[in-house]
Amino acid sequence: MGETMKDVYVGVIGLGNVGSGTLAILTADAEQIALKLGFRLRVAAVCSRSVASVKLPDGLGDDVLRTTDWREVVADPRVEIVAELVGGTTTAREIIEASIAHGKSIVTANKELMALSGAEIWDRAIKAKINLAMEASVAGGIPIHAVLREGISGDRIIALAGILNGTSNYILTEMERSGTPFDEILAEAQKLGYAEADPTNDVDGYDARSKLALLAALAFGERITPADIFVEGIRRITPQDFDYAHQLGHTIRLVCSARQTEKGLLLSVRPALIPQDAILASVKGAYNAVWVKGHYGADTFYYGRGAGPSPTGVAVVSDLMRVAREIRCGSPERVSPFAHERLGKYEPVSITTQQRPFYLRFRVEDRPGIIAELAGILAAKQIGLEAVLQLPADEKHNLPFVITVEPSSELAVREAVEQMSKLDFLREPPLALPIEPGL
Ligand code: HSE
């Protein structure tokens, strides 16, 4: 018989979707977890503003501290790991700082805080000789942190692309499937509780931007400021854009992309046309996916649920198990996964420097000479026209059509779009989407 190891006690702060999913797994699978670890992972304390009204899982134990004050959890002498599951950057930061000060290890699901301050937090955790884990912060059910830190850490990553926001992927793929407009799908998703009452973070790309910043920091070892990343949401995409994209053998997804270029790391979150047979095109509904290209190992692809109590709960519980194992085996973190201090500071590279073919969609008050005028603006910017597409439509006053252009500098395309936006026959500014190669 080996030596018996002491149980590890956890404090769970935040009992929303992620916290409740975590507690449910910790309780229902306590025996399985103990068999895998060789000791028990026990819950010592739970904290939520509404702890009195939250239904906690049966079998959690009567000696569990239930409190509305997170400080009591951090200060509880039994607690060795604090699970910060409240989100945001204010209270969560205080919880993490207090945990480090108390010498407690931390598991967090907080993408926003870790994208913003992960490097500093990690350095302080290492100095304090505690352990930190954040698998649940990006793409809930996909163990992408473990992939980048362990699975393919021997490779040198060249590019990474992903679908990192389930809400916008659900809206886009539902639009593609049913032809229903954006507003109607969003309203239905909100009614069903899939989308938040304020959808900005999801549909305008900010949630995905935090996740991309965090993944890119780990993949490329650079300090990345999320606000430097080019972001564009999906509000302007219409069912007709899918009809046109299909005509071109493509579909549309909100693509998060990071790739090394000669000038540096190019980062963006934006709707883009991708080939219908591309692997990312097969990602539908609220699923997430990450594709990584390595210098040595070439392509790997990771797919799974991006959110939800159970998939994200699995990520938190797996982190708790890893940290508990490290605590019992006496192995503190030694090197931060944010390697920017060694590799130097990231200088943002403007998206306008890239060359791409573009999809330009117009809505016009029909009259003769429109195409000639638009083509003139493109020609003056040295932008080569590839195709003009017009699907049958009987709205002469709001006529949609599409021009695709050959690979061109994004700066030139933007300048052309700005000039076009002033034309009196346009019902709205042109929609310009890059056409990305197969991902
Ligand atoms: N709101 C996110 C999404 C899930 O829709 O993917 C949490 O990160």
Would you mind describing this structure in some detail?
- 36% of the residues lie in helices and 24% in strands.
- It has 439 residues and is of the alpha/beta class.
- The chain folds into 3 domains: 8-140 and 309-344, 3-Layer(aba) Sandwich (Rossmann fold); 145-305, Dihydrodipicolinate Reductase, domain 2; 352-434, 2-Layer Sandwich (Alpha-Beta Plaits), CATH 3.30.70.260.
- The strands form 3 sheets. A 6-stranded parallel β-sheet has the order 3-2-1-4-5-6, with helices on both faces. It has a 6-stranded mixed β-sheet with strand order 8-10-9-7-11-12.
- A hairpin with a 2-residue loop joins strand 9 and strand 10.
- Helix 1 (17-28) packs across helix 12.
Write out key terms for the chains shown.
six-stranded mixed beta sheet, six-stranded parallel beta sheet, 439 residues, Alpha-Beta Plaits, Dihydrodipicolinate Reductase, domain 2, binds L-homoserine, Rossmann fold
Task: Indicate the topology.
Layout: E1 8-13, H1 17-28, H2 30-37, E2 41-47, E3 65-67, H3 70-75, E4 79-84, H4 91-101, E5 105-108, H5 111-127, E6 132-133, H6 144-151, E7 157-163, H7 166-178, H8 182-191, H9 200-203, H10 206-220, E8 230-231, H11 239-247, E9 250-261, E10 264-275, E11 287-294, E12 298-305, H12 309-328, H13 340-343, E13 355-364, H14 370-380, E14 385-389, E15 399-409, H15 410-421, E16 431-434
Parallel strand pairs: 1-2, 1-4, 2-3, 4-5, 5-6, 8-10
Antiparallel strand pairs: 7-9, 7-11, 9-10, 11-12, 13-15, 13-16, 14-15
L-homoserine (HSE) is lined by residues 165-167, 202, 207, 306-307.
